[in-house]
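Appendix B. Chain record.
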Amino acid sequence: MNAVSKRRTRSFARFMPTGYLLCFGLALLATLAPRVNAEERAKPTSVQVRLDEWKVSLTPETVPPGPVVFEVTNTGKVPHALEIEGRGVEKSTPRIMPGASATLALDLRDGAYEAYCPVGKGSHKMLGMTNRLSVGETKQASAENDAAQVKGGKDDDDEYAGGGDDDDAEYATEHAAMHDMRAMAPAQGAEGGVKIIKVVGGGPVIQILPGPFPFADSAMAVIQSRPEDQKADLAKKAHMGPYSNNVAKIAGQISILAIDRGAAGDSVSGVAQFTAKDGARWKLVMDRVQTKDIPYNPRFGGVIMGLFYHGASNVHTPLVPTIQSSVALWSIAHLYKNDQLVTDNAMVHVMLLSRTRRTSDWALDCWDCSERPVEELQLQVTSAPGTPPFDTPGGFLFVNWEKSSGKAEAM
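Structure tokens predicted for this chain:
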């Protein structure tokens, strides 16, 4: 080999390692780049969730597809949980006590997902604890989110005036006039349209008088999770309150027409008449929905159908066994005693619920009565806030019709 060839060979040998390393480095970067980008894309998106009575707040409400971590805090006064459902996903957190937090990690595809509280067999969700999460660019998800209706508190302006005296003709007129309310119902309401129920009391009629709650130990487990001021009120009622086994058999009749229009515009019309244990004759004319929040239980008011609550459901007072109701309503009424007007602002709560009492002595005989037939009609009447209690045992009126019926329909 001549001198020129030797120099070329040495030059090629000298530069070959550098070129080789350069090529190897470029190939390595090309291999690692997708992996690095994938790791960046896989970084979880955080969604802050706040649960309280009765709503689910999401921040943000739209996220990119991929891993999502829900950081959930219960800012309410009763236990809640978070469930995410949609696109084949249905996962939830454990039950979260008031003031506590939990996380839920999911991998979500493009689409719309429902975020709701599953506590109370759907009752918390029915009361408004539901929201929509949009994943990716989904116009349909946005439309569903905009169209979502929240079940909850009722507008204070939707009331109907009425009244009457105690003669039989007036009673019959009021009773028949309830059917005319159907014409008031709009063509469409929230949550699937307007719902109407006609309730008629039947069977034995009993008056419930003040006394201890028979399931005080079971209720106390629920009461202990409530705020201090609520504990004191509930503990007092558990000792001597309106849900007792101190009952008397009486006579009476009741008929109600209730319209559930969704989040606002509910209607109630009804008449109840009964003779109490002491011989006093009472008449109640219901003509307006009560829409103010019930203490410790916001968004209760108006008419709600198909609600699972009370007892251990973490919805409303635990001083009633857990029940399933065809209808629960809150009304304002004219109250008469022995033909004399007592008040035009009596506070009324009515439930057509699953049976809670045994037929032999009408005592409460179940802590969870939710699987029993819905045939017990409860009427509870109390004085308006800031006014004296009624001149009755305990200051309230509480009457049950033990074999009642309700016919519901949707419009």
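Further analysis of this model is presented in Appendix C.
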